[in-house]
Amino acid sequence: MTKGDQSKFMSSAEQMKQDLGTALCLAKWKQVSLHLPTGLNNSCYHPPLHKIPVENLAANPGSLHNTPHKKAQRVMMLQNQKPSECQYCWNMEAENKLSDRHYRSGEPWAAIDFEKIQNSTGEENDVIPSYVEVNFNNVCNLMCSYCSPQFSSSWQQEVDRSGGYPTARVHNDPGHFVGDRRVLPAREHNPYVDAFWAWWPTLYPELVHFRMTGGEPLLDRNTYRVFDHVLENPSAKLHLNVTSNFSVDEKSWQKYLSYVKQLCDGRIEHFMQYVSLDGWGSQAEYMRHGLDFNLLWDRVNQFLTEVPSYNSLTFIVTMNNLSVTSLENLFAGILGLRQTYSKTYQRVWFDTPVLREPAWQSLQILPEAYADRLEHLWAWMIRQSETPEDPFHGFKDYEIARLDRDIAWMRAGQSQDHSAARADFYRFFREHDRRRGTDFLKTFPEMKSWWAECEYHARNT
Length: 461
Fold this sequence. Notes:
globular; single chain; alpha/beta; 9-stranded mixed β-sheet; two-stranded antiparallel sheet; about 10% strand
């Protein structure tokens, strides 16, 4: 991606800021995230997940996306009303920042239908999304600190064995995951997965981006069913994306790598490998329990070396309060990868979405000094900006802008009373250390005073 292309990405978002008006977001029509183990749905990761009515699926599998709830939100947007579930974007815009509403709507897969959507009623039944993200099941070998049994079978096994965590709002208690919130195990019949495969022949020809998450997709047979279909039915416009922890067993890794090599042999437009990583070294391993950081980094290099074309790799850095202290090391590592592998186009990317739940891992509950630390990182990124003469090796303007947005969000919430969340931080990670054999202070020695403050709140709240 050249400097001109990079600026085009920003200018598209700026243009959409003018064109969309006060409330419209094209992602409500053109994007969907499907969580099939629980039958839940949203259009991006900001709004709360909502239930997909199972009774509609047999007659209309497209209702996986076109739920009554979502159609009601579309109608509101077309009437210049702001759905409350999209408050994150409204908050960012109140800070005069570009929001994800602008970024998503400005991307070609959404923007192409802008006029059609603008002139619709919002109640059409057969909107086919061009960007689909799907979680087929919750099988996962990690227990990330901010995750839950909805997305990790390892978490499910732990809380079944030891119960929920002793925070003020009981966390991941088995009693919560019953009824409509029950996770359907991979071994059980799942009507939502059945509906997906019934919808697939209609959906596949329209796809521009298709992303598989988890759980851990490398351990899911549905991943390879998709791969087999794509190999048999190549698509010149398809961007095929997979999110992984890159820490699975060697046999699963080799199987996956073999498939990706075939897919990247001219069968699709592009393969984007997403890798979840929130920090550096032992601190990254603490946040994502079960992660082998050195193995992950070795496999990142192996992927970029052995799959040389039709692909790139993006780190998903979920910005939580344990990320701050090692983020500079991670960003320096990303620059190193860009120097090595980005020769004729950008092959190494990253994104920094903020974590809002659970509240005790939010950036907003940290003292102001940690926001200052991120400000210094932001200033360093500006000094390392890419240039027209060296377009692939520095930081891009929207990467810098997104971190600036994260800092603004962090500072916007720091004036609130966070004593309860700080107390829960201590309760959660004290229990984390007890159950999992970890040591917070050994792993995060620079957060010693913060730990003491959280302990104070836990003992006095």
